[in-house]
Amino acid sequence: MAVKNPIIAALDVPTAEAALKLAQQIAPAVGAFKIGGELFTAAGPDIVKKIRATGASVFLDLKFHDIPNTVAKAIASATQLEVQMLTIHTSGGGEMMRAAEESAQATAKQLGWPAPLLLGVTVLTSSNHETLAEIGCGADTEKQVSRLAQLAVKSGLRGLVCSPLEIIALRKILPAHIQLVTPGIRTGAEKADDQKRTLTPREAIQAGASWLVIGRPIYAAENPRAAAEKILESLN
User: Fold this and answer.
1) Closest by CA position to 12, among listed 228, 217, 230
2) Do 124 and 144 contact (CB within 8 A), yes or no?
3) Among residues 63, 154, 191, 230, which one is catalytic?
4) What percent of the chain has pLDDT over 90?
5) Cα-Cα end-to-end distance for the chain
6) Alpha-carbon distance 96 to 84, whole Å?
7) Cα torsion at 18, 20, 26, 31 (round to 10°)?
8) How far is residue 133 CA from its own chain's centroid?
9) Which residues contact 46 (CB under 8 A, 6 or more apart)?
10) Residue 212: how many other CB atoms lie within 10 Å
11) CA-CA distance, 112 to 109, in Å (whole number)?
12) pLDDT per residue over 30-81, tens digit each?
């Protein structure tokens, strides 16, 4: 995917109707749409097909994490929807990540279109040192992100999802071609929420982010189109 507009707007709404309405409203101001667990569970693959039918790029963010064979099959099914980005959890390990990337490449080749960018999720942006300690990870957040990121690249992944606060550190240790997709973007005007590691859109791009996943600052705004346009202007 050529980066012209780095904003990926999260369609984190409960129904297909709401998603299509929001997508139509903000399409001119964003570069792609993210379909996550809430919307996909409610509307299924059909909502992906409807968004793709508008010509928009889709980031299908389902964070697959299972045994390698199961994940490979899920990735094949997702690739058949002709999405541009997919996510898996890097904590699934190297074998799982290799199986996922191989599945994406093979399925896309068979269908005759470009393989989706398979993104490894390192540490969720709602997590911090306390969260990692709670689940038994001895490393602090930065060390865990670094470890998982390097494992992902070694396993053949071409992109990662990471917190804005880890972008600079990752750019120092990863190959330049690795795309970094960054959630946890906040403009500063929102109320406090569950995101603990955030930056503004401009700060994240300056740090080296390839793409910005922006949810609440757009979809929860009084005027989502105006909010998206304002964020885009801030990047210029």
Assistant:
1) 217
2) no
3) 63
4) 77
5) 20
6) 20
7) 130
8) 25
9) 16
10) 27
11) 5
12) 999 999 999 999 999 999 999 999 999 999 999 999 999 999 999 999 999 9
Please list, in sequence order, all residues whose beta carbon lies within 8 angstroms of the beta carbon of residue 1, skipping any fewer than 6 positions away: 32, 57, 84, 85, 117
State the average pLDDT for the chain.
92
Rounded to the nearest angstrom, the gap between the alpha carbon of residue 204 and the centroid of all alpha carbons in its chain is 14
Rounded CA-CA distance 143/150 in Å is 11
Which runs of E-coded beta strand occur in the chain?
Answer: 7-10, 32-35, 58-64, 85-89, 117-121, 159-161, 179-182, 211-214
pTM: 0.91
Read off the pLDDT of residues 196-211 as tens digits, 9 standing for 90 and up. 556 889 999 999 999 9
Active site residue 191: no
Q: Return the structure tokens found at 35.
A: 């379909």
Query: Hey, which residues does 117 pair with through a beta bridge?
Result: 85
58 bridge partner residues: 33
Amino acid at 6: P
| H or E stretch covering 146 | helix 141-154
Sign of the C-alpha dihedral computed for residues 73, 77, 78 and 79 taken in this order? positive
